[in-house]
What we know:
alpha/beta; six-stranded parallel sheet; 10 helices
Amino acid sequence: MNNVKMKAAVRRDYCSPSQLRIEQTDKPIPKNNEVLIRVYATTVNRTDCANLTAKPFIMRFVLGLFKPRKVIVGTDFAGEIISVGNEVATFGIGDKVFGFNDTGAESQAEYLTISEEHIFNIPTDINFKQAAASLEGAHYAYSFVHKVDIRSGQHILINGATGAIGSALLQLVRQFDVKITATANTKNINLIKSMGADKVHDYTKEDFTKKAEKYDFVFDAVGKSTYGKCKSILKENGVYISSEPGPYAQNVFYPLLNPISSKKVIFPIPYKTRETIPYIIKHLELGKFEPVIDKEYSLSEISEAYKYVIKGEKTGNVLIRLINNESTTKPKLS
């Protein structure tokens, strides 16, 4: 019987951020094919908010129809392996690792257990905070880039370039020989330009869908627009992709109409982390991707972190620090 306790962010029913609680729970024991990780950093992201609240409702079909199957919240993590099961062959005690599971990694806790196929070595010179901030947004951004054929000279619009997905997507798209227009709020215009946007629309002052510019791709990284609103700014054979299903889940069904329309909608079903995270690691190592970090909270402040993220106004990533032994290096973005 495990009598060792740890602190964890817990909810036993789908709830609002104010109902999330920090509790003393049993420290997990790794199975033969698992490792025990001391969590140094995690984030609160849009996926976490959907998992907490079960909104949209479709989340219940994945997480548990009436109650969540996993009571500890959290989808991403960066930390250190402190114990390994006797069948683990790839990793050892002391390895610095990170990972992401969109249906829940139970990572907003001091410790977690996970099978070795779902973790990755943190690149050299990347600290725990940067590692945790490199996962969720970049994982989804990968889907945007790899669902389409981006070619030299094309014009791409990224709506919501300041979020975790958008800021990662901007950096990944910047590697192509294309023109990039992005949307951002006033305070982040210079940041978005520094990451490679050729032009930035201030969404607090103007509506990008009313402009005369036409785009080969409209990437809605925040899901706050619709294909209907963006259709007029797509070129012939242009493609619209959103990170959200849409107000009526229409983005899931629009692709069925693609054969009879010159303008396409693609729903970016995410790839497996065995494909996305190695890609992220490569770009971290090459210095072509640096995560943007907005705010940091302690585990005891996690309800406040969720409240902030749910507002939809964060810049990049919001961190939860569990061990405060390193500083966050600000991205150069130059």
